Amino acid sequence: MDRPLPDTPSFDASTLDTPRLETPGLGTPGLGMPGMGMPAAVDARPADPHEGVVYRVRRPSTRSLPIVLASPHSGRDYSADFLAGSRLDPRKLRRSEDCFVDEIFAPAVDLGAPMLEALFPRAYLDPNREPYELDPEMFEGPVPAYVNSRSPRVAAGLGTIARIVASGEEIYRGKLPIGEAMNRVRDCYHPYHAALRGLIDETRSQFGYCVLLDCHSMPSIGLPPEMVAGSRVDMILGDCFGTACAEQVTEAAEAALRRLGYTIARNAPYAGGYTTKHYGRPRDGVHAIQIEINRSLYMDETTFTRRPFLGTLAQHMQSIVAALARVPPGFLAARAR
User: Fold this and answer.
1) Which among 4, 108, 183, 243 has most CB atoms closer than 10 A?
2) Domains of the chain and CATH, by start
């Protein structure tokens, strides 16, 4: 399976015809609020003009598992406008991608679980952040008062609109208009999370609970020395130190992966990002767990080409989804308050 990548498609976010959402942050219509009741899914789902443009949902022919898969960082639709405003070439921009994670988990859809994929690249907008984690120094014009400019992610240059790629190189030639940041959040972030919330609501309505598997990859270069020297860590499971899902979920995932021969770590250095923390509400019957896969297992990290093991890895990820489906419902159902 080692073969060159096909030409990446592109989209121009400025052409998206999306009404502006008036309320910023987590209270935006369609996102829901933590701790509040989730609306029941409806049989006739209205057509979403964003699906197929900024995100894709892979739906099984028969919905049979209480699981939702999400791949927020595998998008590779780089617009001409974005490339023109960047000081980096497309190959360098791809260093922030979770390359091929969508391909690795796609076969799990055949088991009966839907998968949401962001089509826009992480370097353009990161949906695994709060909606407005923004660095005021990146933008021309005043930022709104509700912007979180003091988060550790912003300080590291990796906010909702990142300043740098994963290798540390600056993305932009100059400052962006603050309106550009607001448009990206409106046109990409909110539709992605509205789709994710919808899938979670559908799942909870059908099964009484939902397990969300947030799918990521990690570079082999840059891992802590203790994870490189001696024994490589193949995957890291993040459950926000036990707060985002029932312990049985993490145990089932780890046991399945260890049986397949992988070396596993928990919560270090990746405990789970915004998606895991925000949606993981075990008391409400929503359990979120993040998985990080060492890229050296399945790709050449310099040439961005697939390695033959990618196909085997995809089969193994079906095994972890099946293991999560076997966790007894008694551990996962919403608890009375």
Assistant:
1) 108
2) 50-126+191-331 (3.40.630.40)
